[in-house]
Amino acid sequence: xxxxxxxxxxxxxxxxxxxxxxxxxxxxxxxxxxxxxxxxxxxxxxxxxxxxxxxxxxxxxxxxxxxxxxxxxxxxxxxxxxxxxxxxxxxxxxxxxxxxxxxxxxxxxxxxxxxxxxxxxxxxxxxxxxxxxxxxxxxxxxxxxxxxxxxxxxxxxxxxxxxxxxxxxxxxxxxxxxxxxxxxxxxxxxxxxxxxxxxxxxxxxxxxxxxxxxxxxxxxxxxxxxxxxxxxxxxxxxxxxxxxxx
Length: 246
Known about the structure:
The chain is α/β, with parallel strands linked by helices. The chain folds into 2 domains: 124 residues, D-Maltodextrin-Binding Protein, domain 2, CATH 3.40.190.10; 95 residues, 3-Layer(aba) Sandwich (D-Maltodextrin-Binding Protein, domain 2). The chain is built from 8 helices and 11 strands. The strands form 2 sheets. Strands 1, 4, 5, 6, 7, 8, 9, 10 and 11 form a 9-stranded mixed β-sheet that branches. A hairpin with a 5-residue loop joins strand 2 and strand 3. The longest helix has 24 residues.
């Protein structure tokens, strides 16, 4: 009888350990390639400013996570349904706050710009100047600063910033809108930095890693702990060291 009880006790411990491991493995963080924030390096390793920050923050929290790439629309859907624990990285907007918990501490500030082909004569001094132009945008992105509320714009949609740049360089759009650092990184990788002009700064807005409300209090607490970890990383110089890598 003792052996049977001991066997059952050990089985219960093994099952509990497996459940714990599965729970940790289930902490999936989804992202869209958005270099230099989220990307693959030349060896195929997931890296980037925000990935490195998030990875270190979760380490300090004692949480085990894995990162997987998604198209941004799919990433947001996974947060809605609870198929992902968190997503990196996006704006804090009312629509997303319906299904996501946000930390108080952002990862970084995004500088949104209007860019034109270097050889074009396009000039933009306000969002109103975009009327009459074909503006390249990425499907599913929210650019903020009143851009979405501007009526009468002719928009050309792409599935990625890479495709957006191709359309700009092939004169399929007059201008594009996007994150200044992302566009700089991509044009530098393509050896086309000399072919783009940043003609207008639309504005600046924080980017966050956010957590699915489908996970309830676990996600809410994770958002709070994530804020604490990021603040600590800023105080001890970890964030500055990560930024210097890129």
